[in-house]
Design a protein that fits this description.
The complex is a heterodimer of chains A (133) and B (264). Chain A is of the alpha+beta class. Chain A has 3 helices and 4 strands, in the order ααββαββ. Chain A has 2 domains: 35 residues; 86 residues, no CATH class. Chain B has 8 helices and 9 strands. The chains are: A alpha+beta (133), B alpha+beta (264). β2 of chain A pairs antiparallel with β5 of chain B.
């Protein structure tokens, strides 16, 4: 997944600022900027990141992760060649721009003897502009 | 009954109780495992429970003294091979992992009534789709549907093993097959073994003096999620003690055989 539209826009703004500072800003530069700004891509897509933390606290250690890229054919699975988990804590993911959209339920059923699933599930998202396909 | 030299030690029993698995390396002569693979390659279809009749050398694997010694230690001298067994082949370039699961349905306990015994006739590399297991998860009673959002989990172990290895696991351990990136199939033979009666005495090389000290020193090993103290910490610790005591022959808190009845 790329965000070509955004990076191109940022680049054109940078060029325009530089030209303005150098007193050489032209109509052509402004027109290129305008074309890019108006060429808003058709949609954004939701990247999803499931992080399972050791407790409902966002600063507790992450013990499992699953990233879902909104690309046709993408796969999210157990992978023996995968690198380390992407973040140590949910808080670290937030610092990297992820938004938490699901928090674990603190009042989930509790058994003081038995154990069941591993960790507490947080779901995070990033909305990113997609190139037209 | 295998010679006592092949029974597990107290330390090995604690390995199994804590982690839910043991790896046993056999010492068959060169060519044995290749012959098994060759026979598998000649099969026209997967024979299901008929795999033992279709590939008779498999019996030798499960009769190997080290394998039997471990199984008898865990399941008692009268343990039996279950009628269910299966050849699990991950085809070449099969690029999908299974999801995490426990076998069977969720009637769990903290005893050892059934083990999986997974034999690998090939060296298994990370690229070939090794079985993945989550040590310690055999104490967890988790419906498979609730595992569907996990991918890689910290502490998971990929069974990248030498040809001839038999991975003996608690029936309840979380596991999955993984993707095979190579150009050849990966085979795993899964057999099950059953305990016939609850233990009344330790069935392994138990030292009544040193064994309890070893166990006490290891109950807290690898307990809980890898970071910090959580509710699971003390519960895991207690469940391990319960399994150890049951294996020594002490009374069970869960009706003996509850899970075994489900399998029959």
């Amino acid at each position: 997944m790329t965000n070509q539209w955004t990076s191109t826009l940022v680049s054109l703004f940078a060029q325009a600022r530089a030209d303005l500072a150098a007193d050489r800003l032209t109509a052509e530069t402004l027109e290129a900027l305008e074309r890019q700004a108006l060429a808003v891509p058709g949609s954004t897509r939701q990247r999803l990141l499931y992080l399972h933390a050791a407790s409902p606290n966002i600063r507790s250690g992450v013990i499992a992760a699953a990233l879902h890229e909104p690309i046709p054919g993408s796969v999210t699975q157990i992978d023996p060649l995968a690198p380390e988990l992407p973040y140590n804590t949910v808080f670290d993911a937030i610092l990297d721009g992820w938004r938490v959209i699901h928090f674990p339920d603190q009042r989930a059923p509790f058994d003081d003897r038995e154990i069941d699933i591993v960790g507490y599930e947080f779901i995070l998202e990033k909305l990113e502009v997609c190139d037209a396909e | 009954m295998p010679s006592r030299e092949f029974l597990l030690t107290d330390s090995q029993m604690m390995d199994f109780i804590n982690r839910g698995y043991l790896l046993v390396e056999t010492d068959f002569p060169a060519g044995f495992h290749e012959e098994v693979c060759a026979r598998i390659a000649r099969l026209e279809s997967n024979p299901g429970n008929g795999i033992l009749a279709a590939v008779p050398p498999l019996q030798e694997v499960y009769d190997h003294p080290k394998v039997r010694g471990a199984l008898v230690s865990l399941l008692g001298a009268d343990m039996t091979m279950n009628g269910h067994r299966h050849l699990h082949t991950t085809p070449a370039q099969h690029l999908r992992s299974q999801t995490w699961h426990q076998d069977g349905t969720n009637v769990r306990h903290h005893q050892i009534w059934t083990t999986l015994a997974m034999y690998y006739p090939q060296d298994v590399t990370p690229e070939m789709g090794p079985t993945v297991i989550l040590p310690g998860s055999h104490f967890r009673n988790a419906p498979t549907d609730r595992m569907a959002t996990y991918a890689n989990i910290k502490g998971q172990v990929f069974l990248t093993v030498k040809a001839g290895t038999v991975a003996i696991t608690h029936y309840d351990i979380w596991h999955a097959g993984t993707l095979n990136r190579t150009e050849r199939p990966r085979h795993m033979l899964k057999f099950l073994f059953d305990r016939q009666s609850a233990p009344t005495t330790p069935g392994w090389n138990h030292d009544p003096v040193e064994g309890p000290k070893i166990a006490a020193s290891r109950f807290s090993e690898m307990v809980g999620p890898p970071s910090g103290y959580t509710s699971d910490y003390y519960k895991e610790w207690e469940l391990r003690k319960e399994m150890w005591r049951w294996m020594l022959g002490e009374a069970a808190r869960v009706p003996a055989g509850a899970f075994k009845d489900m399998l029959s």
